[in-house]
Protein backbone atom coordinates (compact mmCIF):
# COMPACT_ATOMS: atom_id res chain seq x y z
CA UNK A 1 0.00 0.00 0.00
CA UNK A 2 1.56 3.27 -1.11
CA UNK A 3 0.35 5.37 1.81
CA UNK A 4 1.92 3.14 4.47
CA UNK A 5 4.48 4.98 6.60
CA UNK A 6 7.53 2.99 7.61
CA UNK A 7 9.69 3.37 10.70
CA UNK A 8 12.84 5.41 9.89
CA UNK A 9 15.85 3.22 9.13
CA UNK A 10 17.95 5.07 11.74
CA UNK A 11 15.53 4.20 14.58
CA UNK A 12 17.40 2.59 17.49
CA UNK A 13 15.50 -0.49 18.80
CA UNK A 14 17.75 -0.74 21.87
CA UNK A 15 16.94 2.86 22.79
CA UNK A 16 13.19 2.23 22.56
CA UNK A 17 13.50 -0.99 24.57
CA UNK A 18 15.60 0.79 27.21
CA UNK A 19 12.91 3.47 27.44
CA UNK A 20 10.22 0.92 28.29
CA UNK A 21 12.51 -0.89 30.77
CA UNK A 22 14.38 2.08 32.25
CA UNK A 23 12.60 2.12 35.62
CA UNK A 24 12.80 -1.67 35.89
CA UNK A 25 16.53 -1.50 35.23
CA UNK A 26 17.07 1.07 38.01
CA UNK A 27 15.12 -0.99 40.53
CA UNK A 28 16.82 -4.27 39.63
CA UNK A 29 20.34 -2.80 39.62
CA UNK A 30 19.79 -1.28 43.09
CA UNK A 31 19.32 -4.78 44.56
CA UNK A 32 21.84 -6.57 42.33
CA UNK A 33 19.16 -8.51 40.44
CA UNK A 34 19.62 -7.09 36.92
CA UNK A 35 20.43 -10.11 34.69
CA UNK A 36 24.14 -10.47 34.03
CA UNK A 37 25.36 -11.28 30.52
CA UNK A 38 28.69 -11.44 28.71
CA UNK A 39 28.25 -7.75 27.87
CA UNK A 40 27.84 -6.69 31.53
CA UNK A 41 30.55 -4.37 32.80
CA UNK A 42 32.94 -5.28 35.63
CA UNK A 43 31.19 -2.78 37.93
CA UNK A 44 27.80 -4.40 37.27
CA UNK A 45 29.20 -7.85 38.04
CA UNK A 46 30.94 -6.70 41.22
CA UNK A 47 27.86 -4.84 42.43
CA UNK A 48 25.79 -8.01 42.11
CA UNK A 49 28.42 -10.06 43.95
CA UNK A 50 28.40 -7.54 46.82
CA UNK A 51 24.72 -6.57 46.96
CA UNK A 52 23.12 -10.02 46.83
CA UNK A 53 24.74 -11.46 50.01
CA UNK A 54 24.52 -8.08 51.75
CA UNK A 55 20.77 -7.60 51.20
CA UNK A 56 20.04 -11.26 51.96
CA UNK A 57 21.93 -10.98 55.26
CA UNK A 58 20.07 -7.81 56.22
CA UNK A 59 16.68 -9.49 55.80
CA UNK A 60 17.86 -12.57 57.73
CA UNK A 61 19.14 -10.43 60.63
CA UNK A 62 15.67 -8.88 61.01
CA UNK A 63 13.42 -11.84 60.15
CA UNK A 64 15.04 -14.66 62.17
CA UNK A 65 15.08 -12.87 65.58
CA UNK A 66 11.49 -11.69 64.96
CA UNK A 67 10.29 -15.24 64.22
CA UNK A 68 11.94 -16.44 67.44
CA UNK A 69 10.28 -13.57 69.33
CA UNK A 70 6.81 -14.53 68.04
CA UNK A 71 7.16 -18.22 68.93
CA UNK A 72 9.33 -18.13 72.07
CA UNK A 73 8.89 -14.77 73.80
CA UNK A 74 5.60 -13.05 72.91
CA UNK A 75 2.71 -13.83 75.26
CA UNK A 76 -0.95 -13.62 74.24
CA UNK A 77 -2.59 -13.70 70.82
CA UNK A 78 -2.51 -9.92 70.27
CA UNK A 79 1.18 -9.67 71.17
CA UNK A 80 2.01 -12.49 68.77
CA UNK A 81 -0.06 -10.98 65.94
CA UNK A 82 1.30 -7.44 66.33
CA UNK A 83 4.64 -7.90 64.48
CA UNK A 84 3.31 -10.25 61.79
CA UNK A 85 2.61 -7.62 59.09
CA UNK A 86 6.19 -6.25 58.99
CA UNK A 87 7.51 -9.82 59.38
CA UNK A 88 5.40 -11.07 56.45
CA UNK A 89 6.61 -8.07 54.47
CA UNK A 90 10.27 -9.11 54.94
CA UNK A 91 9.59 -12.77 54.20
CA UNK A 92 7.63 -11.92 51.05
CA UNK A 93 10.40 -9.56 49.98
CA UNK A 94 13.05 -12.24 50.48
CA UNK A 95 11.02 -14.80 48.49
CA UNK A 96 10.49 -12.30 45.66
CA UNK A 97 14.21 -11.47 45.74
CA UNK A 98 15.07 -15.16 45.46
CA UNK A 99 12.65 -15.58 42.54
CA UNK A 100 14.20 -12.62 40.71
CA UNK A 101 17.68 -14.09 41.11
CA UNK A 102 16.59 -17.62 40.17
CA UNK A 103 14.73 -16.41 37.06
CA UNK A 104 17.44 -14.04 35.85
CA UNK A 105 17.99 -16.03 32.64
CA UNK A 106 14.28 -15.98 31.75
CA UNK A 107 14.09 -12.25 32.50
CA UNK A 108 17.06 -11.67 30.19
CA UNK A 109 15.38 -13.72 27.44
CA UNK A 110 12.19 -11.64 27.76
CA UNK A 111 14.23 -8.44 27.51
CA UNK A 112 15.98 -9.75 24.38
CA UNK A 113 12.59 -10.76 22.96
CA UNK A 114 11.27 -7.23 23.48
CA UNK A 115 14.33 -5.67 21.85
CA UNK A 116 13.92 -7.94 18.83
CA UNK A 117 10.26 -6.88 18.55
CA UNK A 118 11.37 -3.25 18.46
CA UNK A 119 13.97 -4.11 15.81
CA UNK A 120 11.59 -5.81 13.37
CA UNK A 121 8.60 -3.46 13.65
CA UNK A 122 8.10 -2.34 10.02
CA UNK A 123 5.37 0.27 9.95
CA UNK A 124 4.93 3.53 11.81
CA UNK A 125 1.39 2.52 12.77
CA UNK A 126 2.70 -0.58 14.56
CA UNK A 127 5.51 1.44 16.13
CA UNK A 128 2.98 3.90 17.58
CA UNK A 129 0.98 1.02 19.08
CA UNK A 130 4.11 -0.36 20.74
CA UNK A 131 5.15 3.07 22.03
CA UNK A 132 1.67 3.69 23.44
CA UNK A 133 1.83 0.46 25.45
CA UNK A 134 5.44 1.16 26.50
CA UNK A 135 4.43 4.56 27.91
CA UNK A 136 1.46 3.01 29.71
CA UNK A 137 3.71 0.35 31.27
CA UNK A 138 6.26 2.96 32.31
CA UNK A 139 3.56 5.13 33.92
CA UNK A 140 2.03 2.21 35.83
CA UNK A 141 5.50 1.15 37.00
CA UNK A 142 6.13 4.61 38.45
CA UNK A 143 2.78 4.65 40.25
CA UNK A 144 3.42 1.17 41.67
CA UNK A 145 6.86 2.20 42.96
CA UNK A 146 5.47 5.33 44.64
CA UNK A 147 2.68 3.37 46.33
CA UNK A 148 4.91 0.59 47.65
CA UNK A 149 7.89 2.68 48.73
CA UNK A 150 5.72 5.53 50.05
CA UNK A 151 3.51 3.35 52.23
CA UNK A 152 6.50 1.46 53.64
CA UNK A 153 8.30 4.74 54.36
CA UNK A 154 5.31 6.08 56.29
CA UNK A 155 4.95 2.80 58.18
CA UNK A 156 8.62 2.81 59.21
CA UNK A 157 8.56 6.53 60.01
CA UNK A 158 5.54 6.21 62.31
CA UNK A 159 7.18 3.27 64.06
CA UNK A 160 10.66 4.76 64.52
CA UNK A 161 9.62 8.29 65.49
CA UNK A 162 7.76 6.97 68.51
CA UNK A 163 9.73 6.53 71.75
CA UNK A 164 8.94 4.52 74.86
CA UNK A 165 10.53 4.66 78.30
CA UNK A 166 11.54 1.39 79.95
CA UNK A 167 12.74 0.84 83.52
CA UNK A 168 15.52 -1.75 83.51
CA UNK A 169 17.34 -2.47 86.78
CA UNK A 170 15.89 0.72 88.30
CA UNK A 171 17.28 2.76 85.39
CA UNK A 172 14.97 4.59 82.97
CA UNK A 173 15.88 4.06 79.32
CA UNK A 174 14.25 5.71 76.30
CA UNK A 175 14.24 3.61 73.13
CA UNK A 176 12.62 3.49 69.72
CA UNK A 177 10.32 0.42 69.52
CA UNK A 178 11.01 -2.03 66.70
CA UNK A 179 8.28 -2.88 64.20
CA UNK A 180 9.92 -6.34 64.06
CA UNK A 181 10.82 -7.06 67.71
CA UNK A 182 13.91 -9.22 68.24
CA UNK A 183 14.23 -12.23 70.54
CA UNK A 184 16.04 -10.81 73.58
CA UNK A 185 18.20 -13.88 74.21
CA UNK A 186 19.60 -13.42 70.71
CA UNK A 187 19.62 -9.62 70.33
CA UNK A 188 18.67 -7.31 73.21
CA UNK A 189 17.59 -4.15 71.38
CA UNK A 190 16.59 -2.31 74.56
CA UNK A 191 20.03 -0.78 74.95
CA UNK A 192 22.12 1.58 72.86
CA UNK A 193 23.74 1.12 70.36
CA UNK A 194 21.90 -2.16 69.65
CA UNK A 195 18.60 -0.28 69.41
CA UNK A 196 19.90 2.19 66.83
CA UNK A 197 21.63 -0.56 64.84
CA UNK A 198 18.46 -2.66 64.67
CA UNK A 199 16.40 0.39 63.64
CA UNK A 200 18.85 1.01 60.78
CA UNK A 201 18.76 -2.65 59.77
CA UNK A 202 14.96 -2.61 59.76
CA UNK A 203 14.89 0.38 57.42
CA UNK A 204 17.38 -1.36 55.11
CA UNK A 205 15.43 -4.63 55.17
CA UNK A 206 12.24 -2.72 54.41
CA UNK A 207 13.93 -1.13 51.41
CA UNK A 208 15.05 -4.45 49.94
CA UNK A 209 11.62 -6.02 50.56
CA UNK A 210 9.90 -3.04 48.91
CA UNK A 211 12.32 -3.00 45.99
CA UNK A 212 11.87 -6.73 45.36
CA UNK A 213 8.10 -6.27 45.30
CA UNK A 214 8.40 -3.26 43.00
CA UNK A 215 10.69 -5.21 40.65
CA UNK A 216 8.25 -8.12 40.40
CA UNK A 217 5.25 -5.82 39.89
CA UNK A 218 7.02 -3.61 37.36
CA UNK A 219 8.23 -6.57 35.31
CA UNK A 220 4.69 -7.98 35.27
CA UNK A 221 3.37 -4.60 34.10
CA UNK A 222 5.95 -3.99 31.37
CA UNK A 223 5.86 -7.55 30.02
CA UNK A 224 2.04 -7.59 29.99
CA UNK A 225 1.85 -4.20 28.25
CA UNK A 226 4.38 -5.32 25.65
CA UNK A 227 2.46 -8.54 24.96
CA UNK A 228 -0.76 -6.55 24.76
CA UNK A 229 0.80 -4.18 22.23
CA UNK A 230 2.04 -7.05 20.08
CA UNK A 231 -1.40 -8.67 20.05
CA UNK A 232 -3.05 -5.33 19.24
CA UNK A 233 -0.90 -5.08 16.12
CA UNK A 234 -2.52 -8.26 14.81
CA UNK A 235 -5.89 -6.50 14.55
CA UNK A 236 -4.55 -4.22 11.83
CA UNK A 237 -2.81 -7.09 10.09
CA UNK A 238 -6.05 -9.07 9.87
CA UNK A 239 -7.83 -6.17 8.17
CA UNK A 240 -4.93 -5.65 5.74
CA UNK A 241 -5.06 -9.34 4.90
CA UNK A 242 -8.67 -9.03 3.72
CA UNK A 243 -7.91 -5.83 1.78
CA UNK A 244 -4.93 -7.41 0.02
CA UNK A 245 -7.00 -10.43 -0.92
CA UNK A 246 -8.89 -8.33 -3.45
CA UNK A 247 -5.82 -6.48 -4.74
CA UNK A 248 -2.76 -8.74 -4.56
CA UNK A 249 -3.85 -12.30 -3.94
CA UNK A 250 -0.27 -13.61 -4.18
CA UNK A 251 0.59 -11.79 -0.91
CA UNK A 252 -2.26 -13.22 1.14
CA UNK A 253 -0.56 -16.53 1.98
CA UNK A 254 2.66 -14.76 2.95
CA UNK A 255 0.84 -12.26 5.16
CA UNK A 256 -1.17 -15.01 6.81
CA UNK A 257 2.06 -16.89 7.54
CA UNK A 258 3.50 -13.73 9.12
CA UNK A 259 0.39 -13.34 11.28
CA UNK A 260 0.59 -16.94 12.50
CA UNK A 261 4.34 -16.69 13.22
CA UNK A 262 3.93 -13.42 15.10
CA UNK A 263 0.98 -14.78 17.06
CA UNK A 264 2.99 -17.84 18.14
CA UNK A 265 5.94 -15.61 19.00
CA UNK A 266 3.77 -13.51 21.34
CA UNK A 267 2.32 -16.65 22.96
CA UNK A 268 5.87 -17.92 23.60
CA UNK A 269 6.66 -14.59 25.27
CA UNK A 270 3.57 -14.92 27.48
CA UNK A 271 4.56 -18.48 28.42
CA UNK A 272 8.02 -17.31 29.50
CA UNK A 273 6.41 -14.44 31.41
CA UNK A 274 4.19 -16.95 33.24
CA UNK A 275 7.25 -19.05 34.15
CA UNK A 276 8.84 -15.98 35.74
CA UNK A 277 5.75 -14.71 37.52
CA UNK A 278 3.68 -17.61 38.80
CA UNK A 279 5.63 -18.17 42.03
CA UNK A 280 5.92 -14.45 42.78
CA UNK A 281 2.22 -13.95 42.09
CA UNK A 282 1.36 -16.71 44.57
CA UNK A 283 3.67 -15.20 47.20
CA UNK A 284 2.15 -11.75 46.73
CA UNK A 285 -1.47 -12.88 46.74
CA UNK A 286 -1.09 -15.17 49.76
CA UNK A 287 1.11 -12.76 51.73
CA UNK A 288 -0.89 -9.63 50.96
CA UNK A 289 -4.17 -11.37 51.78
CA UNK A 290 -2.90 -12.33 55.25
CA UNK A 291 -1.29 -8.92 55.79
CA UNK A 292 -4.47 -7.06 54.79
CA UNK A 293 -6.42 -9.28 57.15
CA UNK A 294 -4.04 -8.41 60.01
CA UNK A 295 -4.11 -4.67 59.25
CA UNK A 296 -7.91 -4.73 59.40
CA UNK A 297 -7.65 -6.62 62.68
CA UNK A 298 -5.27 -3.96 64.10
CA UNK A 299 -7.73 -1.24 63.12
CA UNK A 300 -10.66 -2.90 64.86
CA UNK A 301 -8.84 -3.93 68.04
CA UNK A 302 -6.84 -0.72 68.56
CA UNK A 303 -9.01 1.98 66.98
CA UNK A 304 -9.41 4.01 70.18
CA UNK A 305 -5.67 4.26 70.89
CA UNK A 306 -4.36 4.68 67.34
CA UNK A 307 -2.66 7.98 66.54
CA UNK A 308 -3.22 9.88 63.30
CA UNK A 309 0.23 8.80 62.08
CA UNK A 310 -0.57 5.14 62.76
CA UNK A 311 -3.95 5.36 61.03
CA UNK A 312 -2.31 7.00 58.01
CA UNK A 313 0.49 4.43 57.82
CA UNK A 314 -1.89 1.48 58.20
CA UNK A 315 -4.23 2.91 55.57
CA UNK A 316 -1.40 3.49 53.10
CA UNK A 317 -0.04 -0.01 53.69
CA UNK A 318 -3.47 -1.58 53.16
CA UNK A 319 -4.04 0.42 49.96
CA UNK A 320 -0.54 -0.42 48.74
CA UNK A 321 -1.05 -4.16 49.21
CA UNK A 322 -4.48 -4.02 47.59
CA UNK A 323 -2.93 -2.07 44.71
CA UNK A 324 -0.17 -4.69 44.28
CA UNK A 325 -2.74 -7.47 44.07
CA UNK A 326 -4.80 -5.40 41.63
CA UNK A 327 -1.74 -4.88 39.40
CA UNK A 328 -1.07 -8.61 39.18
CA UNK A 329 -4.73 -9.39 38.56
CA UNK A 330 -5.01 -6.59 35.99
CA UNK A 331 -1.98 -7.82 34.04
CA UNK A 332 -3.40 -11.34 34.05
CA UNK A 333 -6.79 -10.03 32.91
CA UNK A 334 -5.43 -7.88 30.10
CA UNK A 335 -3.20 -10.65 28.73
CA UNK A 336 -6.03 -13.21 28.80
CA UNK A 337 -8.50 -10.79 27.19
CA UNK A 338 -6.08 -9.74 24.46
CA UNK A 339 -5.38 -13.39 23.61
CA UNK A 340 -9.11 -14.07 23.31
CA UNK A 341 -9.58 -10.86 21.32
CA UNK A 342 -7.21 -12.13 18.64
CA UNK A 343 -9.47 -15.15 18.15
CA UNK A 344 -12.57 -12.96 18.09
CA UNK A 345 -10.92 -10.60 15.63
CA UNK A 346 -10.00 -13.50 13.35
CA UNK A 347 -13.61 -14.67 13.43
CA UNK A 348 -15.09 -11.19 12.86
CA UNK A 349 -12.99 -10.43 9.78
CA UNK A 350 -14.45 -11.10 6.35
CA UNK A 351 -12.72 -14.49 6.20
CA UNK A 352 -15.45 -15.74 3.86
CA UNK A 353 -13.99 -13.50 1.14
CA UNK A 354 -10.77 -15.54 1.18
CA UNK A 355 -10.27 -18.78 -0.69
CA UNK A 356 -11.20 -21.91 1.27
CA UNK A 357 -7.64 -23.04 1.93
CA UNK A 358 -6.64 -19.70 3.44
CA UNK A 359 -9.86 -19.34 5.41
CA UNK A 360 -9.31 -22.73 7.06
CA UNK A 361 -6.08 -21.42 8.55
CA UNK A 362 -8.12 -18.99 10.64
CA UNK A 363 -9.50 -21.94 12.60
CA UNK A 364 -6.03 -22.69 14.00
CA UNK A 365 -5.60 -19.07 15.09
CA UNK A 366 -8.98 -19.06 16.85
CA UNK A 367 -8.29 -22.36 18.64
CA UNK A 368 -4.81 -21.26 19.73
CA UNK A 369 -6.19 -17.94 21.03
CA UNK A 370 -8.76 -19.70 23.21
CA UNK A 371 -6.12 -22.08 24.61
CA UNK A 372 -3.42 -19.47 25.23
CA UNK A 373 -1.30 -19.51 28.38
CA UNK A 374 -2.78 -17.55 31.27
CA UNK A 375 -0.92 -15.71 34.00
CA UNK A 376 -1.55 -17.64 37.22
CA UNK A 377 -0.72 -17.56 40.92
CA UNK A 378 1.30 -20.68 41.60
CA UNK A 379 -0.29 -22.37 38.56
CA UNK A 380 -3.32 -22.85 40.84
CA UNK A 381 -5.78 -20.16 39.74
CA UNK A 382 -5.67 -17.58 36.93
CA UNK A 383 -5.20 -13.91 37.72
CA UNK A 384 -8.18 -11.75 36.81
CA UNK A 385 -10.29 -8.91 38.17
CA UNK A 386 -12.62 -11.56 39.62
CA UNK A 387 -9.64 -12.99 41.52
CA UNK A 388 -8.93 -9.54 42.96
CA UNK A 389 -12.48 -9.37 44.33
CA UNK A 390 -12.10 -12.85 45.84
CA UNK A 391 -8.85 -11.83 47.58
CA UNK A 392 -10.46 -8.75 49.15
CA UNK A 393 -13.41 -10.83 50.38
CA UNK A 394 -11.07 -13.50 51.76
CA UNK A 395 -8.98 -10.95 53.69
CA UNK A 396 -12.14 -9.55 55.31
CA UNK A 397 -13.32 -13.06 56.22
CA UNK A 398 -9.99 -13.90 57.87
CA UNK A 399 -10.10 -10.60 59.75
CA UNK A 400 -13.47 -11.55 61.25
CA UNK A 401 -12.07 -14.94 62.30
CA UNK A 402 -9.11 -13.29 64.06
CA UNK A 403 -11.40 -10.84 65.81
CA UNK A 404 -13.60 -13.70 67.06
CA UNK A 405 -10.57 -15.65 68.33
CA UNK A 406 -9.19 -12.61 70.19
CA UNK A 407 -12.52 -11.87 71.87
TrEMBL record:
The chain crosses the membrane at residues 49-72, 139-159, 207-225, 281-300, 315-336. One of its GO terms (cellular component) is plasma membrane. It is found in: Cell membrane. It is a multi-pass membrane protein. Keywords: Cell membrane, Membrane, Olfaction, Receptor, Sensory transduction, Transducer, Transmembrane, Transmembrane helix. GO terms for molecular function: odorant binding; olfactory receptor activity. The keyword Cell membrane applies. GO terms for biological process: signal transduction. Belongs to the insect chemoreceptor superfamily. Heteromeric odorant receptor channel (TC 1.A.69) family. This is Odorant receptor. The lineage of its organism: Eukaryota, Metazoa, Ecdysozoa, Arthropoda, Hexapoda.
Amino acid sequence: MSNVKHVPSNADPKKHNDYSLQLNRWFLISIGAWPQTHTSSLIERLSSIILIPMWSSVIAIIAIPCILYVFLEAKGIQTKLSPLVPLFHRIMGFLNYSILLARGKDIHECIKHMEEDWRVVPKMEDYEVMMKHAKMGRYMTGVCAMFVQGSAFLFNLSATMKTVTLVINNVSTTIHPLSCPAYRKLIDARFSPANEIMITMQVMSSYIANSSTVCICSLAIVFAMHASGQLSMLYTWFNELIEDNAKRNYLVQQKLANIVKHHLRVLCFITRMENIMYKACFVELAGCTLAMCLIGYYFIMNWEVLSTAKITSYSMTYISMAFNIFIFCYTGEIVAEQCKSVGRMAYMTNWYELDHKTARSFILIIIQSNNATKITAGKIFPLSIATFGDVIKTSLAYMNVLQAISI
